[in-house]
Amino acid sequence: MNTTPPTRCPAWPALAAQVERWRTLRLADALRSDPARAARMGATAPGLRYEFARQQLDAQALELLLALAEQRGLAGWREALLSGWSVNSTEQRAALHTALRAGEAAPPEVKAALARMRELAARLRAGAWAGATGKPITRLVHLGTGGSDLGPRLLVDALAEARDAGMTVDFAANVDPLDLDRALATADAERTLFVVVSKTFTTQETLENARAGRRWLAERLPRGAALERHFVAVSANERAAREFGVGELLPMWDWVGGRYSLWSCVGFSAMCAFGPERFDALLAGARDVDRHFAEAPFAHNVPVLMALVGVWNVNFLDARTHAVLPYATPLRLLPAYLQQLEMESNGKCVDREGRSLEYATAPVVWGAEGTVGQHSFHQLLHQGTQAVPADFIVVAEAPGEPRRRRILAAHAAAQAEALALGRDDPALPPHRRYPGNRPSSTLTLERLDARNLGRLVALYEHKVFVQGIIWNINSFDQWGVELGKEMAQRLLSED
Length: 495
What we know:
Rossmann fold, 44% helix
């Protein structure tokens, strides 16, 4: 496997030679002089279309980027990932999140866990899960943080319209007492179930909230009540979870990183919210994209193209941030989810061989739902001193009043066009001019349902993996979070 620095690949200096030409060539000219550009700079995957004609590159740069992927040995690394080889070099582990959604080809332990999830979720949704006093559970409080929170929270919010009306699902991720207090403000202890999600069952924030939840139950339920009926754990540490006192335990595995785990039992709360059938559709959508990633030629492979466009922006156009702009309220939590997926995976300063990097890796990911962001940070996108590449995410078919749907679609298209073309009319005062040349891509989903949500998330997962291979970094560890934890523990021990 190729672990040499990407700067030694022939395509890298050739790409660097392209930069100055693109700094002087305007996107407006490229778009107007080449009517076929939009059709040529795009690719299709199941349920979605990716268009990058408004990115600040041309066919020659794209050809070199594709050559860079070949020179990095991407095909071999892709096979290693999908075959379950050890791609997490610092921890000597596979990264088998794709096995979680492999359907009939999934490992037996995954099939068994999914079956158990379905069984428990069916009990809960049917009103057959009784708490300590015999009353059915109607409220679920999900306790986790990071990847044990962001993924399930995204799923539940994105598919809110499909939620069971009789089941309330809340989340608490912060050790700040107010987070859990707010989740429990209107809760009935007799009808509340806590789902504690921690791979190691040692995550401080999660366990402190779980202990607080246990005290809250003990204060409100009859003395000696079976509190374990109000706890489910999702963990790889069965002993610690049982010692805490949980009634049900769902497994996790060390070959799935937290930020790649929503497809696993970590998604139990989401399954309870919108049902096993939609969870199966979510897995099927991710499986669609896994197949596309495995089989499509690089020139037509959507996650590969997304990754290469990002590499071009970061390493050759010096972009330091990347905006994610979903023009769909159900995807309003996607920017936060992608912050962890991208920045925890690829926010690295040493390569696979432990060498300090002389080139940039992950940009800062941020964003908000449109049109809300237009009245917040789009001023900087249009007239700021730095160009911020952006992903516009739109939904072709969506429910709701047709007039407002048309307005939303018009705003998304107009923002992308205005960023690219600008307005440099000398008759206008300087503060009314727009420089343009601000790059963006557009992802269009056919509709927003469980299957297409699975496709969208898997798409970004594979994009992150490809960029990690280009940059020669391990996308599957996160040692950078450890030092702060150690220092916090030391400060607490000094109290």
